[in-house]
Design brief:
The structure holds two protein chains of two kinds. By secondary structure, chain A is an alpha/beta fold. Chain A has a single domain, classed as Rossmann fold. Chain A contains ten helices and nine strands. In chain A, α5 packs across α6 and α8 runs parallel beside α9. Chain A is globular and about 55 Å long. The termini of chain A are far apart. Chain B is an alpha+beta fold. In chain B, a hairpin with a 3-residue loop joins β5 and β6. Chain B has two domains: 175 residues, no CATH class; 216 residues, no CATH class. Chain B contains 13 helices and 17 strands. The chains are: A alpha/beta, B alpha+beta. At the A-B interface, α1, α2 and α4 of A face α1 and α11 of B. Chain B: Pfam families: FtsX, MacB_PCD.
Chain lengths: 237, 419
Amino acid sequence: MPQTAAILLKDLRFGWRKNLPEVLHIPELEVPRGERIFIGGASGSGKSTLLALLAGVNLPTRGEVTVLGETINRLSGARRDHFRSDHIGFVFQLFNLIPYLSVLENVTLPCRFSQLRRQKATESGGDLHSEAMRLLTHLDMAHESLIHRPVTELSVGQQQRVATARALIGAPEIIIADEPTSALDSDMRQAFLRLLFQECDETGSTLLFVSHDRQLASLFERHIALDELNQADQEGR
Amino acid sequence: MAILSLAFKSLFNRRYTAGLILISIALSVSLLLAVERLRVESRNSFAHTISGTDLVVGARSGSINLLLYSIFRIGDATNNISWKSYQKFAEHDLVKWTIPISLGDSHKGYRVMGTNQDYFRYYKYGHKKSLTLNQGQPFKQVYQAVLGQEVARKLGYQVGEKIVIAHGAGKTSFTRHDDKPFEVVGILEPTGTPVDRTVHVPLEGIEAIHKDWIAGRQVAGLQISAEEALEKNLTPKVITAFLVGLKSKIATFRIQREINDYRKEPLLAILPGVALQQLWDMMGVAENALLVVTVLVVFVGLIGMLTVMLAGLNERRREMAILRSVGARPGHILLLVTGESLLLSLLGIALGLLLLYTGLLLGQPAIESRYGLHLPIGIPALREWIILGLIGTSSLIIGLIPGYRAYRYSLSDGMSMRI
């Protein structure tokens, strides 16, 4: 059986309301599994909207969003939520962590909601705690002094690495990173990306990296300019 | 379970605000329970003050006034009744027994009651319980006294003690019958009624100590020694009130009418049960007002919780979005925020119970000695469980308000980091 694409968009259209103009129209996009793809575009080009559609938080007004062979816009809300928690890991721009949980609790958080990721993480590391520690070690975050500190006292770079470990735990097939480096300085940015790539390679995850920073694009196997991909009228965005 | 542990950690993260809310809920819960317990116990103690007595008879005044001074030893009689009238009804064909009561003197703040041996034979309280002696025996001679349990305990009296009776009901009386001391011959078992706070002496004793008194004053030059007084006729001329037991309950209203219509003296006969009920109804208004106020206090506590939860919600939209991104469904968010409120109020209830029992343990002896009210430190009664259940349910309903808002936010925000 041929492997389905990680992501397949067909004639995707989205508008916030019926009588408002469309903000997003992507005739076709296919992302094979294991690919690292850079999605660039100025702010307002529809990046967040696209991510919300891929995550199944918003539904397209027309067209199909197929993730790992599952057409998620046909699933019920609860099923979409389940699908997302099982198969997609997220890293956001800033303040990614739950302030009242410890570093380890933050990393293992997806396993509270996804049975599948809990199972995969346990298989990989023996138990959740060791798996979280393994990921944190890879991300150079496993020092005793760091993991027992309240997450609000970590530096931005450290927080982003904890968030990355959380996105990676339980080896979800797709990692979506939404401007995760914009708060980091350029040295940190490079180092962070290297770690991210390394981890995605190890788990075989597909990486969708969204950023307005075109300098980073060259580091990826493939880059897409959303401004060009998006066929919706400029006024509508 | 996973969500509730998140709720707990989230609350702990805001422990100062949450702690204040917790304290306000705990205080209001303990206040409500304490009021409820006081209410139930005062009603119980009230209804069980006297039993087995068909009529209480005194000088004509209000029925509640009569009940208060004759049974509860609160306030004073407006007037006395004559021995002759008492004799007439005591010898009535339908009357089985009577207990004469003569009040007006005191010992160290405790009321002294003159009566006769029938008191020990016929007086009943609680569920038709007779008085029993813990030590000694009933009085047989003029200068002998039987103490209520509290009198003996508080003043540290044993059988054989000599006590002096003071004129009037005040705690510090300047006129004392110190020429005629009484010997304690018996101490009663505790009853939980005003009997505990009473010094019982024979009617003749009351008469003897007042032999050389006229119009409330000792008459100069007319001193009669204790021994001389015994020589005199000690049959009282007046008493304060008397209790009546009838041969048949059916005759109650007939005798009551007969007494109330008595031509020679204005008398009043009341049914103690009815008067107790009237008294209770009078207090019921205040009692219900108190209950309403305490219910409102609990409500205010819960509204405080709602305010804090709603105010914090906007700052937490990012937290909700993160939770959504790691797989929390909108229902989880609802459960998280509602769970926080529920957890807070359940902890508040638990802490409130703790406060209540601590308060009861510390305050019980003082309340019992000062107000004669025994507050049991048992597990909560059914009604109290219902109250706790209602508080829990209300807090759940109130907690659903921020829960629902967070749910709406998480639906509309999705995973976008708006703030």
